[in-house]
Amino acid sequence: MDETAPSKLLALLDLEEVGPDRFRGHSPASSGRQVYGGQAVAQALVAATRTTPGDRPVHSLHGYFVLAGDPSIPIDFAVERVRDGKSFTTRRCNATQRGHTIFSMEASFQRREEGLTHAAHMPDAPDPESLDDVHALVERFRAFLPEQAESWLQRRSALDMRVVAPDDVFFPERRAAGQMIWFRVRGAAPDDPAIHTALLAYLSDMTLLNTALLVHGLTIFDPKIQVASLDHALWVHGPMRVDEWLLYAQQSPWAGGARALTRGQIFTREGRLVASVSQEGLVRQRDSMRS
After folding, report:
1. pLDDT per residue over 27-42, tens digit each?
2. How many domains does the chain have?
3. pTM, whole model, 2 decimals?
């Protein structure tokens, strides 16, 4: 992706309308063997948002990854208008390839209202400018990085990411399952709040499952581990800009039965909680996989 602007990322979320409540999306040429989960979430959200009133932003979405997506072919999104109430709008979106569902999502949109207010406090974290960017981390840890990890980290991206306590990621030992990451989209994104929310949905899938592996001294690049997202939930608490620094505080409270639960909170630099995330994933040791 373009390192100086989010143009290609925005183009990824600009779905083609192919019929009433029907849309089509594509994957970037730089995709790996499977569609990135955050892409499916964000594109489904864009499709659902296009069928809702503009004065009702999304406040929550819940999705299931059913099959691995093929990035070489388009993804078709069909939106079902479940309900249009006085305050809330509900949409269901089904993403398919070759006639098979690869991702399904239900999202709720709400008319803006006033109400009681409280929020969690942002954890202490160093300023993002004081932390190494990804390219500096690659140089710092090159001798210890597997080839797959270096390739992933060096990939040209519209994302600027700064890892808090990177030694915990690159030299994992048994420790509490948590990590924090500053991130922002490079360049300036349009002012449309719906675009920033879709971009947040795209980025909310990143690094979550790796949080569950750190406590066991593993990473997603370990060839002995099979990792895949099973579901994804996002609650949007208020407007944000993804072209400004956001802190993603991630934890894994549980793992078992070849699954792991992860959750995260996303804060603005000023400490405002703007989103909460939860995801369960497949975390299977390959020597225990069924043939």
Report:
1. 987 667 899 999 999 9
2. 1
3. 0.91
